[in-house]
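Help!! Second protein's tokens look totally different from the first
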Amino acid sequence: MLRETLSVVRDLPRLQEIASVLIRYGWGDAVRILGLSHILERAGRLLHWQTTNEITQLDLPVRIRLALTDLGPTFVKLGQVLATRVDMFPPAWIEEFEKLHNRVPAVPFELVRPALERAFGGDIDQACASFEREAFAAASIAQVHRAALKDGTPVVVKVRRPDIVPKIEADLRILTHFARLVELEMPESRRYHPVQIVQQLRRSLMRELDLIKEARNIDRFASNFAGDETVRVPRVHWQYCSEEVNVQDELQGVPGSDLAAARAAGLDLGLLAARGGDAVLKMILLDGYFHADPHPGNVIYLPGNVVGMIDFGMVGRLTERRREQLIDFLNALVLKDAEGMLNVLTVWAGDAEVDEEKLAYDIDELVFSYDNLSLKDIQIGPLLSEITALMRENNLALPPDLTLLFKALITLEGLGRQLTPEFHMVDHIEPFIKEVYARRFTPGALAKRARHGLREVMDVVMGLPRDLARLFRQARRGSLRIDLDLKRLDHFGLQLNQAANRLTMGILTGSLVIGSSIIMTVPDAPAGLSFLGQLGFFLAFANSVWILYSIWRSGKD
């Protein structure tokens, strides 16, 4: 608690900025919910201002995008992370988040010169044959300069902005605090795990801040595509790389966004689409390590219809088990297998409460709507969007690694269809499904799965004595606790009460029958005693009728 209080005090100036921007775009209620108006005098005053009509007339997603843009690189990156959460937001929101870009003016060369000289081991002009002082691309975290090494190799040099790390760390502290408050004040938000989203943002930003990690990503992709003449990944010049600087070969070709130039260069757009699609699907389905942002700005078309890929700051990783689930899911999509899709989605839902009957019905309806279409007419992007909308309606959230993947698949299909309308993602997915299934059932793969299964069983068996000993110790100390989550507890209590009443009346009825029988069989009984026996039989009969009636009514209810 003390640490959080100190961090809030340290970040007060930035909190003032954030509160001011939120209020400017009509988010005064959010400022109140987050408690900022109580600790920030300026925010408290601003809450009395009226947001301009021009801003209030804007759609809510637009206002959020503008606010994130004004708040700077960390919040822009947050918007880009949210753009991958197609399971959380409808298409209109995703479209706005996708407009967020972190293009900003480059800082003067003299401010980044110290970092460059540390990386190159001295004066830039001595280390390079040429070095362009003017950055040709600049983002919120780093900017990129063209240069040539002493041997004439054309390279691009990415250098991190000075003093960016403390600013981002402060924003991340604040966002973590906000996420905890949102989970506390808005229970319905918990299924989307706001704190986990901020943690995902932190990991993403920390990776981007360390340019060595991007260099490692490049090397990994280069290794995965070694020997493939259809795909090119830049070569990293490790002797000049550091956390602040990344030096790699410049891929000189046609930018992926300039289709007219690609046609003028005589490139085959259909072949480029096929090769690009196959490359990304290989990353996802075979390698489990993929470029998470394959948009046209990160693609270069090279002579010979070679696809070049750049900017590996945002990558995704899939475990072997997740890839198997994904293959099963894509196979169900291709086969229009509603039950197969349901099985995988319920696994992805994890511990979330799922109305499986409703989910099954919704999936069946979705599959039925595609039933009359041939495979080549099915677009994966819109289909995935419908599936994520279906998950939102059923209060389900995708695991973070899959949100990045779904977004990459949707972006990839858009890129392919931009090159040629004849690009059909399903046609490219099918061969990979067959290859993965063939690999899955090789003797080596089966033996590996058997070893894993045996190890899991042995872990359970070996851990059983320890777990039992812990259980008995807790029982002896009286600290053994069993948590029961009883749904509809009130209804359960009512049923228990009714059962107790019936049991009591049943015992009473039995007692009356036995007592009356004894009275009626007493020889030479006093006058009136037989009447009491008859009365007992009558009351027993009445109780029996009541018990039978109550049981019949409960069955009706």
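Here's the second one for comparison:
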Amino acid sequence: MESYERFSFAAWVEYECMMKAASVFRDQRLYADMEDFIREHIGKYLDDSFDQFGHFTKALICLNSAEVYRKVGAVYEFSHRLSLFSLFHLSQISLIFPL
């Protein structure tokens, strides 16, 4: 099972577990730890070299991460940047699959 990251469904399950862990940091009001955790563990899914997820999935990851920041009442530049990244990924989808 050392090469489970080849399978997108396993990577998606891992991502969901990471979001749950970030929510635990949020619920315990450990906001600095939450931000570090999101940047380190969830940000890897947005990297260009991570090709198991398409633009639509990466847009969802950006929106979910921005939602975590919104729930703590943060108006961080980082959460706004995540929202913009989600729009970028969605625009990439429309370039690939024009409506």
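Reply: Different proteins will give different token patterns, so don't panic. Helices lie at 8-27, 31-42, 55-71, 77-96.
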